[in-house]
Design goal:
The protein is mainly beta. Helix content is 10%, strand content 39%. The N and C termini lie far apart (43 Å).
């Protein structure tokens, strides 16, 4: 953001690989004071999303505005549904909302439109998304409650809270949840020196 010397911060970068163009897209949230329309939040918390692209992580395209939906946003994640349908899961960081929405585009770089209503409770952020069978699972941090929650959706239009059905390590924050086969999982557990009970091991094998 060197082209904007008044930039306050560079927050929560997310990486997306665009298979169609063979490039990596890096998006993040920054505040440039007195640049954009503002709600109840303070000027120094009026974020918009920016991006750069790279093929080799040695050279990068100039940082550019990724999304200005007309309100403060952070913690955005690009999701590919198919080659002509992309979803952006984002945090509406305005007061009093501070919860999650989705937007839609025909390209990973947008433009993203049709921004949904919020679909999680207040004080939720840090979404991470998995595809499982016919549903997408959107995990999020409920930071005031100090817990992780999740919703499932098949169309990114209706959402069902499944927070009571998930199990995550205590104090998990702003991580990325990903799928791994059993062999990879066991290797990671061994490398981390984590001891798991026989019951937990059986549950992992069943899942």
């Amino acid at each position: 953001m060197k082209f904007e010397p008044s930039t306050v911060n560079v927050w929560a970068p997310e990486l997306y690989y665009d298979e169609e163009k063979d490039i990596y897209i890096i998006i993040w949230a920054s505040t440039i004071p007195f640049r954009f329309e503002k709600g109840e939040e303070e000027e120094l918390s009026n974020h918009r999303m920016y991006y750069t692209t790279t093929r080799d992580f040695l050279t990068f395209s100039p940082a550019s505005l990724f999304l200005d939906p007309g309100f403060s946003i952070i913690d955005a994640v690009i999701v590919k549904r198919n080659t002509k349908n992309y979803v952006l899961v984002l945090k509406d960081n305005t007061r009093p909302n501070r919860n999650l929405r989705v937007a839609f585009a025909a390209s990973p770089l947008g433009p993203y439109t049709e921004i949904s209503d919020t679909f999680t409770r207040m004080f939720t952020e840090g979404p991470t998304i998995l595809k499982t069978r016919n549903n997408w699972l959107i995990y999020f941090e409920a930071y005031r409650e100090r817990v992780y929650g999740a919703v499932k959706t098949s169309d990114f239009k209706s959402f069902t809270d499944i927070s009571s059905e998930i199990i995550l390590p205590a104090n998990h924050k702003h991580g990325t949840i990903f799928k791994a086969d059993k062999k990879t999982l066991r290797t990671l557990i061994k490398a981390a020196g984590v001891k798991i009970s026989q019951t937990q091991s059986q549950q992992k094998d069943e899942n």
